[in-house]
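pinned: reference chain
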Amino acid sequence: MPRKDTATLYDLALSQGHALALYRLPGLRAVQHISGGVVRSLREGMQGFAFAPFDPAEKPYYIVDGLKATATATPVSRPKSASRTSFTELVKKIRLAIGTGQYGKIVAARAWSMARPDGFHPALFFDRLCKAYPKAFVSLTMIPGVGLWIGASPEVLAAQKGGKLITYSLAGTKAITDLKPWGDKEKEEQAIVTDFIRKKLAAIPGVKISTKGPMTREAGSLKHLLTTFSVVSGQDQLWQQVVRRLHPTPAVSGMPQSRAVKFIQAEEGFDRRFYAGYLGPVGRGGRTDLFVNLRCMEVTAKHLIFYAGCGITADSDPEMEWQESERKIAVLKSLL
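pinned: its structure tokens
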């Protein structure tokens, strides 16, 4: 799809008050789109584009092609940019909480806001991301009254075709130029996520599970530790069971899962909204491909808001976690 076409699609949806999803699957060149109205649940057999908040208590939004657009609105407040001091203090607080024995890991996230540049066009920035990150899931999601988000995610939450589903354990981060062996902190972080996913998948009746990894996975200027899970079942809607059990995974929340989510909502200091939620096409072409909403930014009329998170364990160094969050924010910021 030529660049001018993505801009035309965006401008048309904006003028008509329609929701819009532009997306490019990893390793492919073709950009696909869905434009229309929004529902909060899909009937069996419906196709759409899922856009879910971080908070597992909130229902996803689904953009459905051709559906009549209806007004949707949620109150939105722009999060303040976290200072180095406030973020490192949060990391220290998390380490103290882990030291009580109640948590194995908690993910600390932060936002960074800047003025929206003159002439910035969301669809053209989406095109730039597609070229810069061919192995990522690149997306632009616009829902009137809810928000506009753009991202290049490296992390699959659930990919299903027929009776086979793939999901990943992706945790541990360092710069792609760092040639040292993976440290104990990163290995522990990845093991926590892997064990969690294995137990959750094993609780689904009638599935067969196999794993591969961990191995190193490159994602732009960063690399991560990755374990792949293959799940075989006769269930067409297996992805719904998997997402219900996994979201939000320890890679974006912590362990124990529900307790970590409550800690984040009480102590992080801002509403993550759709950062670390999930998104992607559902039922299109006989496939469902859902990704965790990472390496993303929110676009408002006056600001660009970047989000990043770091997995904190007992061995985390607050300053190093700040530097990691800076590298993650730079993934998108460097293309402005």
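why pinned: Helices lie at 3-16, 84-99, 122-132, 184-202, 238-246, 257-267, 318-333. The radius of gyration is 19 Å.
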